[in-house]
Amino acid sequence: MEKYLEDLFSQQQYDKNNFFLIAGPCVVESEALINEVAEKVSGICKRLGIPYIFKSSYKKANRTSANSFTGIGDEEALQLVKKLGQKFNLPTTSDIHTAGEAAMAANYVDILQIPAFLCRQTDLLIAAGETGKIVNVKKGQFLNGPSMKFAVEKIHNTGNTKVGLIERGNTFGYQDLVVDYRNIAWMKEIKVPVIMDCTHSLQQPNQSAGVTGGNPELIETIAKAAIATGADGLFIETHPNPAVAKSDGANMLQLDLLEPLLEKIIRIRQAVI
């Protein structure tokens, strides 16, 4: 594990042979929701020895429909995420969408996440790198793994070497995604941590209703294959009741299914390391 990740997880007791987990609800809906998820997931991870990063977006800027929920307010949501991190002693992450958001969000979270659609935005990558925070970049649905070296280089050129890459599938037709697991091996050749987004890779975007669909029943399949092929971490959005979630409910994992899933994946990790 990279030194910067060891420092990030220094307050947690974990098995150093484990993968790390980034998990939480898609978007900050309320303080009660994010606290419920963080308390549950952090308890599971402590028991299983998995280093854990809490994730929830303070704003959803890339929605299909103008009627989609985008957030409770940027500063209010970021303050809640920061408060949660302090309460549960967890590192936190959220995605940013413009160069102007980088410095603002860096005041509240430990890791800045770059959305897949924006992974080639030079000004955004540079602004994120200049904060000195860890920057995780999602691989674009339109790119292959090797091409992500250029995103990493842009951040490295700011003097920031704390970069991770997230695989989330590639566009397949108009309304589906497919995961090419060669990308995990290819991105690991860039010498950065590689994380598998097990939920967004199962999205079915561009539905006629304006709300993204998904195949959450395949989350376990995606996660198992990712660990078997060398992923360093897993990204899983989870919610106590995805059916009522305000964003991406169609592909989130129901919270009470997370623990048995992680137990299975740990056994795969132990078999392949």
Describe the structure.
The structure is a single chain. The protein has 273 residues and is of the alpha/beta class. The protein has one domain (3-272): TIM Barrel (Alpha-Beta Barrel). The protein is built from 9 helices and 13 strands. It has helices at residues 3-8, 31-48, 74-88, 99-106, 122-130, 149-156, 182-188, 219-228, 258-272; strands spanning 20-24, 52-55, 92-95, 111-114, 134-138, 163-167, 170-171, 177-178, 194-197, 203-204, 213-214, 233-239, 253-254. The longest helix has 18 residues, at 31-48.
Defining key terms:
273 residues; alpha/beta; TIM Barrel; 8-stranded parallel beta barrel; two-stranded antiparallel ribbon; 9 helices; globular
Brief account:
The chain is of the alpha/beta class and 273 residues long.
Radius of gyration: 17 Å
Q: Determine and state the CATH class.
A: Alpha Beta
> How far is the N terminus from the C terminus?
13 Å
Fraction in helix: 25-40%
Average pLDDT level: 94
The CATH architecture designation is Alpha-Beta Barrel
The low-confidence parts are: none
Q: How would you describe the oligomerization state of the chains in this entry?
A: single chain
Element string (H = helix, E = strand): HEHEHEHEHEHEEEHEEEHEEH
Using the coordinates shown, work out and report the CATH topology. Answer: TIM Barrel
The profile of the biggest β sheet is:
8 strands, parallel, barrel
Strand content: 15-25%
SS-derived structural category = alpha/beta
Query: How many beta strands in the DSSP annotation?
Result: 13
Number of spatially distinct domains:
1
Across the major sheet, the strand order is: 1-2-3-4-5-6-9-12
Helix count from the secondary structure assignment: 9
